[in-house]
Design brief:
heterodimer, B: alpha+beta
Chain lengths: 305, 343
């Protein structure tokens, strides 16, 4: 009994200390907002795994929760994210509507990073609609971009727009700024995207060996972050570069790996694109058995729902 | 100095509250089994806590000896012919208790360390049969009411089992591999989501079946909730169920004379059941709002994340760690666009 009393005294002292130094009560609850944040994170992971429909479901759920608790910042983030999934699914009309809401909410929140995040996706939508002039008009007033995550994304977006407009030199300068930021912050996936864009610009300048180096680095980073879509694109781009370097054997391997990745991810359209390039390569190589095999794969993919 | 005095005062008050300085009177009883009997279990008399079980031991005759400490204030209630009755909670909510049924006499209290027969013993049964024990008739009435609730509870448990089964696969995926790492949990959830999505997309019939199942579940739960609501309102109506069930010789008076202790306890249990049903109902409604299995997964995800969050909040609130209440989680946009492949 004495032991129990001694323990009780110690507990009492600890309790007294706790009461005197406990942190203040929270200013409000954020259960719903936390839940929306979790849904956004789940959506981003689904997006990363190229499960775009699933990602969209998560983003729309997050948007609904944020709307229910009247959280402007949350709504902007959720609708902006929904737009990326809708664009990936080819739902351009829905994406534009989502971006409209995201823009309104971002402006209402008066948070510059949020406003810029929406602009980044609006530029993506413009490019998706083959309207680089509109995208440039959207970006130019925002120059110079801030030295932030959003700023780096804007430099990348501007480089893409400049490339679409044939401004290869300025595009190289813009993407270099994005690349420097992403490298310094060790943001591997964004760095990989910058390197990929750099490689395509180098291709435009007939610097195929440099392009291959850039792509191999992008590939290593995409592997590191398990970026399925990026990996498939890296291998396909490597195949194209190998073809320009007249290395058909390597190109064949690259296209093969690309089509396998897209096939495993269930991205039929992308797989078909890689298979068509593979078919051209094996045809150049005169591999009759391979031509038959790849043609059969193409037919099967095209026939699949 | 002032702090020391305050500390001592607190200790004295705490000790008094915890009965450190009180005198207890120990009695003992015997039961055929220790099932439902635990050390620390409360001993009640008409709803009042009058003591506690201090020791449970298997004797040399393989009978269970239970030592009971009766608080000093209630010692005079332990009159000769008193028996103890083990009351397990038929609702399965909380621990049961030992009820003291005092002898119907005005004799001085029994000596400490005396034997109190249990109602399951021959001696206890004989005393009950002789009518020398103050056996509250209200208890019988409560048992009657409880017997009405029992079928409802069977239905509730059945429904709960159905819900559990419904969510079982997802629960396993979510709970089995979390290892306190959000990222690992997310990966698991994502894999499960992929599976569910492929199942749902592969056949619309599956989704329809699940929706129908969810609606049936809702209907069932609504029925149960309605039944319990009705029963609860009847209990609160002095002209309703209670007069019909209670003894006409004044048991209602007995029932209420203890400052509604028994009645309040009973309605509290009903409220708990209603709360539980409300939660299940809420879940079922959410299940119906979207694809049922995905909704189930979302609920589990939320629960698991909330548990993790609570643990982390508890840790950060620990004064030794000097943390604080966590801020709201940041909500970030997705900024991944398709890469332009044109060379």
């Amino acid at each position: 009994m004495n032991t129990i009393k001694a323990v009780a005294v110690v507990l009492l002292l600890v309790g007294a200390i706790s009461c005197s130094s406990a942190p203040p009560a929270p200013d409000g609850v954020h259960d719903q907002r936390d839940r929306a944040a979790d849904l956004l994170k789940l959506g981003q992971q689904s997006f990363q795994s190229v499960h775009y429909q699933q990602a969209l479901t998560f983003f729309l759920s997050a948007a609904a929760i944020n709307t229910a608790v009247d959280d402007e910042e949350g709504m902007a983030a959720a609708w902006n994210s929904a737009a990326t999934a809708q664009l990936a699914l080819g739902l351009r009309g829905d994406a534009l509507k989502s971006l409209k809401i995201a823009e309104q909410m971002a402006k209402a929140s008066q948070k510059t990073p949020l406003i810029l995040q929406v602009v980044i996706n609006q530029v993506q939508a413009d490019l998706d609609a083959d309207d680089p002039q509109a995208a440039k008009a959207r970006l130019t007033p925002l120059l110079p971009f801030p030295n932030t995550v959003e700023g780096a994304a804007l430099w990348h977006a501007l480089a893409t727009v400049q490339k679409a407009l044939g401004e290869i030199g300025p595009a190289g300068i813009s993407v270099a700024k994005a690349l420097a930021f992403h490298r310094s912050k060790k943001q591997d996936q964004d760095t990989a995207a910058d390197l990929f864009l750099t490689a395509t610009l180098q291709g435009h300048q007939n610097k195929w060996t440099q392009a291959k180096t850039s792509l191999l680095e992008a590939l290593a980073l995409d592997r590191k972050v398990e970026n399925t879509m990026g990996l498939g694109q890296d291998w396909r781009a490597l195949g194209i570069v190998d073809d320009h370097l007249d290395d058909q054997a390597s190109a064949r391997q690259s296209f093969e790996r690309s089509q396998r990745i897209f096939g495993a991810a269930g991205l039929k359209d992308q797989q078909i694109r890689s298979l068509k390039l593979l078919l051209q390569t094996v045809t150049k190589l005169g591999l009759k058995d391979e031509i038959t095999r790849v043609q059969n794969l193409l037919d099967a993919s095209a026939a699949a729902p | 100095m002032v702090s020391m005095v305050a500390l001592i005062a607190v200790l004295v008050l705490m000790g008094a509250n915890q009965r450190w300085f009180a005198r207890n009177y120990v009695f003992y009883s015997r039961f055929s089994t220790a099932d439902g009997v635990t050390t620390g279990m409360r001993v009640r008399l008409k709803g009042f806590e009058i003591g506690k079980v201090v020791k449970v031991k298997l004797n040399s005759y393989n009978r269970v000896r239970v030592d009971i400490a009766i608080y000093e204030d209630y010692y005079d209630k332990i009159r000769p012919d008193s028996v103890v009755d083990l009351a397990t909670d038929p609702l399965g909510l909380g621990a049961g208790s030992l009820n003291l049924l005092p002898g119907l006499n005005q004799l001085p209290p029994m000596e400490e360390h005396s034997f109190l027969p249990s109602t399951e013993s021959n001696l206890g049964k004989a005393l009950m049969a002789e009518g020398v024990v103050d056996k509250p008739l209200a208890n019988g009435a409560i048992a009657g009411i409880i017997s009405q609730i029992e079928p409802l509870l069977v239905e509730v448990r059945g429904t709960a089992a159905a819900v559990t089964h419904f969510l079982g696969d997802i629960n396993g995926a979510v709970e089995g591999r979390s290892k306190n790492q959000i990222s690992a949990l997310m990966t698991t959830i994502q894999a499960t989501m992929g599976t569910i999505e492929s199942v749902l997309s592969s056949t619309g019939a599956n989704a329809n079946t699940l929706m129908v199942s969810g609606r049936d579940l809702m209907k069932n739960l609504n029925g149960i909730t309605g039944n319990i609501d009705r029963l609860s309102s009847q209990l609160q109506d002095p002209k309703g169920l209670i007069p019909k069930l209670l003894d006409p010789q004044g048991s209602l008076k007995t029932f209420l004379d203890d400052k509604n202790q028994l009645y309040n306890q009973f309605t509290q249990i009903l409220a708990q059941v209603n709360d539980t049903l409300g939660q299940v109902k809420g879940l079922a409604q959410y299940l119906n709002q979207s694809t049922p299995m995905i909704s189930g997964l979302m609920e589990d995800t939320q629960t698991t994340l909330k548990k993790t969050s609570n643990v982390m909040e508890g840790l950060s609130n620990n004064p030794l760690l000097r943390g604080g209440i966590p801020a709201a989680k940041p909500q970030t946009s997705t900024l991944q666009g398709a890469r332009d492949e044109s060379f």
